[in-house]
Design goal:
The structure holds two protein chains of two kinds. Chain A is an alpha/beta fold. Helix content of chain A is 39%, strand content 17%. Chain A has two domains: 140 residues, Aspartate Aminotransferase, domain 1, CATH 3.90.1150; 255 residues, Aspartate Aminotransferase, domain 2, CATH 3.40.640.10. In chain A, helix 2 runs antiparallel to helix 10 and helix 4 runs parallel beside helix 5. In chain B, helix 1 packs antiparallel against helix 3 and helix 2 crosses helix 3. Classes of the chains: A alpha/beta, B alpha+beta. The structure holds pyridoxal-5'-phosphate (PLP).
């Protein structure tokens, strides 16, 4: 990361003690968990919050007048306030709970898109998007007769900023791209792209799935229109996420799904919808997950994002140097600014074999296209092996991973 | 061939049981088996012969001679190639009926399940299906 922040050294061993899952053997070897970009592990306090909710507070929210319902609702809404602070949103009503990043993007594509996209309009995404930020736009573009266009990237895996002025025009209605890439680690120049998009009156959705655990998020300062992320990639539970949207936009958008919670009054002839955020939260949500997300946010806040980022950058640099020193290993994604993702290919070894061998040695890495097939096509590869780091990872674990890699390469050259 | 499909399956299971479930030794042995697989002729390694998995590719060719089916196979990943070679060893040179009736228990018995089904990640499952399809197709060719 480019900005040098004053950081404090974290006690990683102490942090590791908060994560019960890390202390186990896999295939007879101590687990090294490097699949954090897919989902990271949960500290005990998040697990405790889930259990506590079901042991003491379980009730459906918003509907009951009894004490448990009151407690559950308060805890649920408390997380909304924490999220508001976490991303520095103007208003708590601008925080909508969803199933995750994918649902957040689908909600915008479907609801905003149906209302505001028309024949001849353009939606602009980047060449390094997750399928979750491609397919919903393809679907709505097809439905509305709009065109999907793509911001190109260079070999390092950075958006080619010089190409943007030709791509962002008065036809552009939406620019959707990720804050950080799950396959490459690239941190995108979001301020710049948001400014360019707003200059032509386009709206911006940022896919923050890979950013929230690593980077400071300030939706107000960014002036971003929509920001989507998942709890499970920031030490929280799976199946829960957030859509931030500006009030002025959310109020103009039709509901995404119909059901309970999202209505004011229902009769067979007419239904009036609830106010935001409830208009977009049909049905009983993952109440326990949302409540436990609060603990994940507390966990991150207590450690301090700048401290987390400094530790992870240290790990990334260490891993990058070690990978660069290995003959035949090539890092895919060499952007100047990266989150802690090291994606690579090894000449003569298929990533599937590499992943299976790594697992046999206790190292969990991800292999394949990482849900970014168009990006793999750009590099002319089928997939990569990806090691991604979280705050609880250590340099010693990277040594184990590199030793494993060296011995696997040796086996293949036998 | 005097040994039945079941005999050879038993043989394979015994070989693997000597590895004591050690994952590294198991993978290493699977790779060694792949390295011993006779190379597939270029004329058989066509796109039509690809049975596709999610992460790895398998080529499978079947020849019908003397009422028996002979399989040739290859894969772009070393581990899948090893697994493929086990299938070829068990099933190549059998009658269509033997292939249709074959109960491929060895995968379960060897604890190799995780190498095939769960992740849809390699072509082995698809290959087993394809082999059965050849078995069925050729059984209609015999009278
Ligand atoms: C950049 C990016 N966008 C979107 C997603 C989808 O997130 P989820 O599966 O939690 O909806 C992911 C997760 O892999 C991701 O990395």
């Amino acid at each position: 990361m480019s900005q040098i922040l004053e950081t404090q050294k974290l006690d990683i061993q102490k942090i590791r003690e908060e994560f019960p899952i890390l202390h186990q053997q896999v295939n007879g070897k101590p687990l090294v968990y490097f699949d954090n970009a897919a989902t990271n592990q949960k500290p005990q306090r998040v697990i405790d919050a889930l259990v506590h909710y079901y042991q003491h507070d379980n009730a459906n929210i918003n509907r009951g007048v009894h004490t448990l319902a009151e407690r559950a609702t308060a805890a649920y809404e408390n997380t909304r306030k924490s999220v508001q602070k976490f991303i520095n949103a103007n208003e708590v009503e601008e925080v909508i709970f969803t199933k995750g990043t994918s649902e957040s993007i689908n909600l915008v594509a479907s609801s905003w898109g149906r209302k505001f996209l028309n024949q001849g309009d353009e939606v602009l995404i980047s060449a390094m998007e997750h399928h979750s930020n491609i397919v919903p736009w393809q679907m709505i573009c097809e439905e509305r007769g709009a065109t999907l266009r793509v911001m190109p990237i260079n070999q390092a895996g950075e958006i080619i900023v010089e190409a943007l002025d030709d791509l962002i025009t008065e036809r552009t209605k939406m620019v959707a791209f990720n804050h950080a890439s799950n396959s490459l680690g690239t941190i995108n120049p979001i301020e710049l792209i948001i400014k360019k998009a707003h200059a032509v009156g386009a709206k911006v959705l940022v896919d923050g799935a890979q950013a929230t655990a690593h980077l400071p998020i300030d939706v107000k300062a960014l002036n971003v229109d929509f920001y989507a992320f998942s709890a499970h990639k920031m030490y929280g539970p799976t199946g829960t996420g957030v859509l931030y949207g500006k009030r002025s936009l959310l109020e103009k958008m039709p509901p995404y799904q119909g059901g309970g919670e999202m209505i004011k009054e229902v009769s067979f002839s007419k239904t009036t919808y609830n106010d935001i955020p409830y208009k977009f939260e049909a049905g009983t949500p993952g109440i326990a997950n949302v409540i436990a997300l609060n603990e994940a946010i507390n966990f991150i806040n207590e450690l301090g994002k700048a401290n987390i980022a400094a530790h992870e950058l240290n790990l990334l640099n260490y891993a990058t140097n070690a990978l660069n020193a290995i003959d035949g290993a090539n890092i895919i994604g060499t952007a100047k600014d990266k989150v802690s993702v090291a994606s690579f290919v090894v000449e003569g070894i298929h990533h599937f074999d590499l992943g299976m061998w790594m697992d046999a040695k206790g190292v969990a890495v991800r292999t394949g296209h990482h849900c970014t097939q168009p990006l793999m096509d750009f590099y002319g590869i089928e997939g990569t092996t990806r090691a991604s780091f979280a705050v609880y990872n250590t340099v010693e674990e990277i040594d184990i991973f590199i030793d494993a890699l060296n011995s696997i390469i040796k086996r293949f050259n036998k | 061939m005097s040994n039945s499909i079941d005999d050879i399956q038993k043989e394979v299971v015994e070989e693997f049981s000597m590895l004591d479930g050690d994952m590294e030794m198991t993978i290493n042995y699977i790779m060694e088996l792949g390295e011993q697989l006779p190379p597939m002729s270029d004329s058989s390694k066509t796109d039509d012969n690809i049975v596709k998995g999610c992460q790895s590719k398998v080529w499978l060719n079947a020849d019908f001679k003397d009422n028996k089916i002979f399989f040739e196979a290859d894969s772009n990943t070393a581990i899948t190639k090893g697994l493929v070679s086990i299938l070829v060893r068990i099933l190549s040179g059998r009658s269509p009926k033997e292939i249709v009736d074959a109960d491929l228990r060895f995968i379960d018995q060897m604890g190799l399940n995780r190498f095939i089904g769960t992740q849809r990640s390699n072509g082995l499952g698809a290959m087993m299906k394809q082999i059965k399809i050849y078995g069925l197709a050729y059984s209609t060719k015999i009278n």
